[in-house]
């Protein structure tokens, strides 16, 4: 298992896009990575389509130094996630330390609020294209865009190439 020994943090909050949270988690676990979910508190969060996800840790319990990578799921959860200072600090730590960051769909909102997109090549759901560009990013309409340690994707049909790229970069 090529990701054995790797630790990945995934944010979670209510109204996450069910596939955009669970597909990456299951894919990473298949490869041997340990994946922890972190939310506002240690509780069960419900996705847009009713799938539950229980947070292992609250945001305040997270030390980003303990993780090799970060995943930010889409849905409506990113609009909530970006309001937490600890979430912003974790994203900024991962960026400053060139640790892998994956974002899909509306997750770009969190990276915008963390102010880490200036000069980056990204994709997202087309609905936030203007937001991404206004944050200084170069938006590209592709299933997955890899810009160094930042991997972005558009929507659920793009999950296979997104997670292949994420796993490939994490394995290096």
Keywords:
172 residues; Class_I_gatase-like; seven-stranded mixed beta sheet; two-stranded antiparallel ribbon
Describe this structure in words.
The chain has six helices and eleven strands. With 172 residues, it is of the alpha/beta class. It has a single domain (7-171), classed as Class I glutamine amidotransferase (GATase) domain (Rossmann fold, 3-Layer(aba) Sandwich). A seven-stranded mixed β-sheet has the order 5-2-1-6-7-11-10, sandwiched between helices. Strands 3-4 form a two-stranded antiparallel ribbon. Strand 10 and strand 11 form a beta hairpin. The chain is globular and about 35 Å long. The mean pLDDT is 98.
Write down the CATH topology. Rossmann fold
Question: Averaged pLDDT, please?
Answer: 98
Helix and strand string, N-terminal first? Answer: EHEEEEEHHEHEHEEEH
Q: Please identify which CATH superfamily we are dealing with.
A: Class I glutamine amidotransferase (GATase) domain
User: How many beta-strand segments?
Assistant: 11
- Tell me the distance between the termini: 13 Å
Sequence stretches where pLDDT stays below 50 over 5 or more residues? none
Overall domain count: 1
* Strand composition percent: 15-25%
CATH architecture: 3-Layer(aba) Sandwich
Structural class: alpha/beta
* Number of helices, where a helix is a run of at least 4 consecutive DSSP H or I residues: 6
**Helix share of residues?**
25-40%
Strand order of the largest sheet: 5-2-1-6-7-11-10
The Cα radius of gyration reads: 14 Å
Q: Can you tell me the CATH class? A: Alpha Beta
Major sheet characteristics: 7 strands, mixed
Shape by Cα distribution: globular
Keywords: Hydrolase, Protease
Protein name: Protease
GO molecular function: peptidase activity
Domain DJ-1/PfpI: 6-166
